[in-house]
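Researcher: Batch entry, complex prediction.
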Amino acid sequence: DAKTTQPPSMDCAEGRAANLPCNHSTISGNEYVYWYRQIHSQGPQYIIHGLKNNETNEMASLIITEDRKSSTLILPHATLRDTAVYYCIVIYSGGSNYKLTFGKGTLLTVNP
Amino acid sequence: GAGVSQTPSNKVTEKGKYVELRCDPISGHTALYWYRQSLGQGPEFLIYFQGTGAADDSGLPNDRFFAVRPEGSVSTLKIQRTERGDSAVYLCASSLNPRTYNEQFFGPGTRLTVL
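Model: Structure tokens for the complex:
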């Protein structure tokens, strides 16, 4: 699986959009980008995933660059409950690839 | 509906003791995973079950660690002769079908402290 690079920490004001970047310059054509987050003292929670098109769900939007070497997770209106560690994971989806390889992620702190 | 549950939530043991950690996956999920998370790190894969069988145990650190899932539902992670370095949060996750979709649902974890 391709390696990902994320900033160790970011701050965001409550109510503003949080934009979390991820670099995955070695991603291959059949690898997806997944985002999970982990609120303190809880297990990780799936947020969103995509292959090459931008994706949106009730939690967030995922913007993937045309060359697929980087992506941005957008929380449109961050709340205090969005304070968490956010993990960007690249994984081949299909076959028997099931291991999520977590890096250190980005600690997002939403401030009042 | 009910999510993944893990018991106990906290376990304190002494070096050299045996411990068992239990995971109850979401009903109907055939795939079950164990991860371990040390302080300040992301979770690390330990073992994956598809049904009753361990399809991949390559993440188990050594032969003191063993996991079972005898009826394809509840799983138990067993650690023999615990060491202080085993102290971590042990996370369990389950999913419907890992071959087509990688959304894994995680439990809250068991915090293991080896004194």
